[in-house]
């Protein structure tokens, strides 16, 4: 299936790409090349959209749904963490009172730096 077909199969965005990576710690991880994906409750970008962080541009390469129970340590590394547990604790500290439910689905936005 092509990227265009994948985009057509996705539900409408719930937010804008400008809100995809906003925490300073996350911005720094992206700029350092340590974070190449962001998981959100909603869909913030389409494949091919460009995110700008401190004059650097990143293109969204994949957007897909994933359950929290499917997360692997490799997924956590995309987020800039060593393990799923480290990622989980970070998310729960940002969202006090939020339960971590294995069946809960999130939207994964994978991106890469556009070389100048």
From TrEMBL:
<feature type="domain" description="ASCH">
    <location>
        <begin position="20"/>
        <end position="115"/>
    </location>
</feature>
<dbReference type="Pfam" id="PF04266">
    <property type="entry name" value="ASCH"/>
</dbReference>
<keyword id="KW-0808">Transferase</keyword>
<dbReference type="GO" id="GO:0016301">
    <property type="term" value="F:kinase activity"/>
</dbReference>
<dbReference type="InterPro" id="IPR007374">
    <property type="entry name" value="ASCH_domain"/>
</dbReference>
<keyword id="KW-0418">Kinase</keyword>
<protein>
    <submittedName>
        <fullName>Fructose-1-phosphate kinase</fullName>
    </submittedName>
</protein>
<dbReference type="InterPro" id="IPR015947">
    <property type="entry name" value="PUA-like_sf"/>
</dbReference>
């Amino acid at each position: 299936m092509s990227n265009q077909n994948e985009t057509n199969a996705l539900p409408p965005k719930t937010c804008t790409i400008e809100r995809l990576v906003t925490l300073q710690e996350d911005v720094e991880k992206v700029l350092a090349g340590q974070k190449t994906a962001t998981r959100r409750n909603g869909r913030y970008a389409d494949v091919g959209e460009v995110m700008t962080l401190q004059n650097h541009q990143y293109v969204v390469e994949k957007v897909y749904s994933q359950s929290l129970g499917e997360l692997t340590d490799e997924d956590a590394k995309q987020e800039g963490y060593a393990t799923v547990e480290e990622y989980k604790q970070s998310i729960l500290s940002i969202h006090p009172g939020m339960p971590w439910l294995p069946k809960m689905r999130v939207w994964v936005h994978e991106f890469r730096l556009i070389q100048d």
